[in-house]
């Protein structure tokens, strides 16, 4: 049933059964759940997708397959409280499959719910001493098992962040710090991308999540990992061009079907390239922490930071950035400047820290924390190492006018 050819992206990732692009959401999800022989389905949707999820939830209930009422507890960034509540609700319902409808935080939450269901199953078999409700530490501990078999997850994205294409799951702690888990078994089982699910999306979600496809492509092309093949870089550039075309099309008509499909297909290609080159990239890592610290959507982070991060390592990645400049449409203009101009044309995205109430003092504090806590990883991901927190702050605050 896999629909890989419509993606122009080669085989689907290991651990994934099927991908359906441009197909009707409800009927396709029901068919996949039947194929998976699922009998107790736990459905998670973000609040804006709850109405669109209604026909699926109603049908599952009528068939006796709905494990619990629709869960809409997952907030932006996958906040800890809502996430843990979803985990406990799924475990109490003894769910054997998870359907996630919405954005990246919802799909990541579904992955973590599956880990907690595995922990609950181990307790029932007497293979675990853990008791009580879900916690982030207990969920992460499940990934340490030698063998890990998870309940299937069917993802129905309504936007373009591509969390459904990774085996990493992010969450935001009560202290506003990015956390989560990673394991190959976290790769979702099925994806159903229906552009109709994006109906009513605000601009900052629509364009912000699509911009992540650009960020992922840049990360793959400029990866500091050794031995990234020319094939991977070529794929990332192809995907980046598709996303740019899709973004331009959505600026003209936000719900244009072909423009949305371009953004999804392009985003698929760039995240696959980044996964191969080495996930996460510098921008992805920095922006994850920025979004958690300041409660900002990651699309806005891309708008505020991506061009600055690209400029930080411009000298060390000059050949790669020349190819990026061509893919962005103007070979003779620096890639950071083109990226900044592209972001400026996208409705709903913040351009400066002040627009999201991040003061200079708060930005400095964040740079100091980021360097003190993560300097080794920052320097492993960056083609230009950071000698101090001041260097991190310089990157974050670089004037856009001088890119």
What do these coordinates show?
This protein has 403 residues and is of the alpha/beta class. The chain folds into two domains: 5-197, Rossmann fold (3-Layer(aba) Sandwich), CATH 3.40.50.1970; 202-402, Dehydroquinate synthase-like, alpha domain, CATH 1.20.1090. The protein is built from 14 helices and seven strands. The strands form two sheets. A five-stranded parallel beta sheet has the order 1-7-4-3-2, with helices on both faces. A two-stranded antiparallel ribbon has the order 5-6. Helix 7 runs antiparallel to helix 8.
Characterize this entry briefly:
The chain has two domains: 5-197, Rossmann fold; 202-402, Dehydroquinate synthase-like, alpha domain (Up-down Bundle). It contains 14 helices and seven strands. The chain has helices at 25-35, 50-62, 80-92, 104-124, 136-142, 203-221, 230-252, 257-278, 282-294, 298-312, 318-328, 335-344, 360-381, 389-396, and strands spanning 18-21, 41-45, 97-102, 153-157, 168-172, 178-182, 190-193.
Structural class: alpha/beta
How many helical elements?
14
Overall 3D shape: globular
- CATH architecture classification of the largest domain: Up-down Bundle
Q: What's the SSE blueprint?
A:
Elements: E1 18-21, H1 25-35, E2 41-45, H2 50-62, H3 80-92, E3 97-102, H4 104-124, H5 136-142, E4 153-157, E5 168-172, E6 178-182, E7 190-193, H6 203-221, H7 230-252, H8 257-278, H9 282-294, H10 298-312, H11 318-328, H12 335-344, H13 360-381, H14 389-396
Parallel strand pairs: 1-7, 2-3, 3-4, 4-7
Antiparallel strand pairs: 5-6
């Amino acid at each position: 049933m896999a629909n890989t050819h419509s993606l122009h992206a080669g085989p689907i990732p290991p651990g994934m059964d099927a991908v359906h692009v441009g197909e009707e959401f409800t009927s396709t999800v029901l068919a996949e759940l039947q194929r998976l022989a699922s009998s107790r389905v736990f459905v998670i949707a973000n609040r804006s997708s709850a109405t669109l999820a209604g026909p699926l939830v109603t049908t599952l209930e009528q068939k006796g397959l709905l494990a619990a009422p629709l869960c809409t507890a997952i907030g932006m960034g996958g906040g800890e409280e809502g996430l843990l509540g979803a985990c406990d609700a799924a475990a109490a319902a003894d769910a054997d499959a998870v359907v996630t409808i919405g954005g990246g935080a919802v799909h990541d939450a579904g992955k973590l719910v599956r880990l907690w269901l595995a922990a609950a199953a181990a307790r029932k078999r007497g293979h675990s001493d853990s008791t009580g409700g879900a916690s982030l530490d207990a969920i992460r501990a499940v990934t340490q098992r030698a063998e890990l078999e998870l309940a299937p997850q069917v993802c129905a994205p309504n936007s373009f962040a591509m969390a459904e294409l990774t085996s990493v799951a992010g969450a935001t702690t009560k202290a506003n710090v990015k956390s989560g888990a990673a394991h190959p078994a976290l790769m979702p089982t099925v994806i159903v991308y229906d552009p109709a699910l994006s109906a009513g999306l605000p601009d900052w979600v629509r364009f912000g999540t699509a911009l992540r496809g650009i960020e992922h492509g840049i990360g793959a092309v400029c990866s500091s990992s050794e031995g990234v093949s020319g094939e991977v870089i070529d794929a990332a550039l192809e995907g980046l061009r598709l996303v740019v075309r899709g973004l331009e099309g959505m600026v003209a008509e936000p719900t244009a079907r072909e423009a949305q499909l371009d953004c999804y297909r392009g985003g698929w290609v760039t995240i696959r390239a980044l996964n191969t080159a080495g996930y996460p990239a510098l921008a992805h890592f920095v922006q994850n922490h920025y979004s958690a610290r300041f409660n900002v959507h990651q699309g806005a982070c891309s708008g505020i930071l991506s061009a600055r991060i690209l400029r930080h390592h411009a000298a060390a990645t000059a050949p790669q950035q020349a190819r990026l400049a061509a893919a962005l449409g103007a070979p003779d203009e620096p890639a950071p400047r083109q990226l900044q101009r592209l972001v400026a044309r996208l409705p709903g995205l913040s351009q400066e820290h002040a627009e999201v109430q991040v003061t200079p003092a708060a930005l400095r504090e964040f740079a100091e924390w980021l360097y003190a806590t993560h300097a080794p990883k920052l320097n492993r991901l960056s083609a230009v190492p950071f000698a101090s927190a001041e260097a991190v702050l310089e990157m974050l605050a670089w004037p856009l006018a001088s890119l």
